[in-house]
Amino acid sequence: MSPLGREPGHALLNPYGDGTVLGLTSPERANALLLGIIEAASSGPHVEPLAAAVARLITDATATDVCFVHVLDDTERSLTLAGATPPFDEHVGAIHLPIGSGVAGWVASHREPAVIVEHKEADPRYVPIPALRGTDYTSMASVPMETGPSGLVGVLNVHTVRRREFTDRDLQLLGVIGRLVAGALHQARLHRKLEARERAHERFAEQVIAAQEAERRRLAGDIHDGISQRLVTLSYHLDAAGHSMQSDPGLAAEQLGLARDLVDLTLDEARAAIGGLRPPVLDDLGLAGGLASLARSLPHFEIELELDDERLPEHVEIALYRIAQECLQNITKHARATLARVRFRVHRGTAWLEVIDDGVGFDVPGTPPGSSGSGGYGMQSMTERAELVGGRLRVISRRGSGTTVIATVPLSSQDAATDRA
Questions:
Q1: For residues 141 and 166, is the Cβ–Cβ distance under 8 A?
Q2: Dihedral sign of CA atoms 299, 305, 311, 316 in order
Q3: Rg (CA), the chain
Q4: CA 41, CA 127: separation in Å to the nearest integer?
Q5: How do strand 339-347 and strand 302-307 relate by DSSP bridges?
Q6: Residue 191 gets which letter from DSSP?
Q7: What number of CA atoms fall less than 13 Å from residue 94's CA on the CB side?
Q8: Of the ranges 153-162, 168-177, 194-203, 343-352, which one carries the lowest mean pLDDT score?
């Protein structure tokens, strides 16, 4: 026999103080249950250990055979089995019920208790889950766990092998327990969300560092293969000119001419390398001016511009400029387009960039942009740039119908203040 007793029909004194008697008549058993719930709630910030402890407490308190604790997942569209009494604890995290599906899903949707005394299969709300062996149990009761009128946290299910008429007092007991543990489970869910957000931030930081290192390697390669080599060659021409100045003025003049050409090429490559880090045009003209300058540099097809003269935070301007640059390069290389449109606007706290062409288009794979097989490195690069500034990228295309790329970046209130400054 458990410390709480397995005899049905006892009462738990209602912790809300209205005098209602709920299931365990012995004050000692009521106190033991309350202490057990408090101990479980204070055992740690994680959902699964708390739900497992609650499942054990409930089977003891209600003299039932099995308890399942289904917790609302982070999407708030389905329930996940977060705790269960053995032998079903091995399925924790693997059972999911959409809101409205099955008895637990019905309880979550309607925020009402449900009781099935026998013949579960005949109840239209019942959905069999083979792993949970519903046919082994005759009766069941299910109640919502809520922190308030709109604070659904999950659903408690209890099952018995023998037929059992769950009384109003039984449901009251389950409801009280549900309310007692709902707050702790809610805090555990918030902790889980916080941990997930921290992991996402860590991955974000890793991506930023990797992108920075890749950019440094690319720039180092450009300098080594281009600027450095040209400077070495330039020194040879200047040496040759110096040696020939007296003996062969014509050769010296030729070498100086070659050196001058190399200086021009080296300056061009240096400007390109600097532009690879941050386009200088953004400092002078902002994103609208930068996009207009970018469009003028591509004479291969007509480009129509619709650009708001809005300044954005530096990192957002760079990301959107690079996305537009990649789009226009893709159009030049692959689209065989005669017309492109570049639109930039700020509307209701969101920056919008659209690049549209009338080219040959392509079939967008059924995976999110940036995923494997979603259009190559260029598409992945644009997606990552958008995500790094908190935005998202959409690509709309099909063969023969051109391509539309839309980047949206939400602006914080501080960003909006920067825009107006």
A1: yes
A2: negative
A3: 34
A4: 31
A5: parallel
A6: H
A7: 10
A8: 194-203
Fold classification of 27-196 (topology level): Beta-Lactamase (3.30.450)
In 46-197, the DSSP E strands lie at: 66-72, 78-84, 96-98, 114-116, 139-146, 152-160
Confidence (pLDDT) at 308: 94
Q: What is the mean pLDDT of the chain?
A: 78
* CA–CA separation, 400 and 246 (whole Å): 66
Q: Mapping DSSP to helix (H, G, I), strand (E, B) and coil, where does residue 45 land?
A: coil
Q: Where are the domains of the chain?
A: 27-196, 202-277, 280-420
- Residue 2 structure tokens: 């458990």
Who's near 184: CB < 8 A, 6+ residues apart? 40, 41, 50
pLDDT tens-place string over residues 297-320 = 777 789 999 999 999 998 899 889
222/217 Cα distance (integer angstroms): 9
Question: Considering the domain 280-420, what is its CATH architecture?
Answer: 2-Layer Sandwich (3.30)
Whose CA is closest to 387, among 372, 402, 370? 370
At residue 177's C-alpha, the angle toward residues 61 and 79, to 5°, is: 110
- Is pLDDT at 19 greater than 60 in this prediction? no
Q: 48: which 2 tokens? A: 């699964």
Parallel, antiparallel or unpaired: strands 78-84 and 392-397: unpaired
Contact assessment for residue 339 and residue 351, using Cβ atoms and an 8 Å cutoff: no
How far is C-alpha 231 from the chain's CA centre? 47
Averaged pLDDT, 229-238: 73
**Is it the case that residue 68 has pLDDT exceeding 90?**
yes
pLDDT attached to residue 227: 67
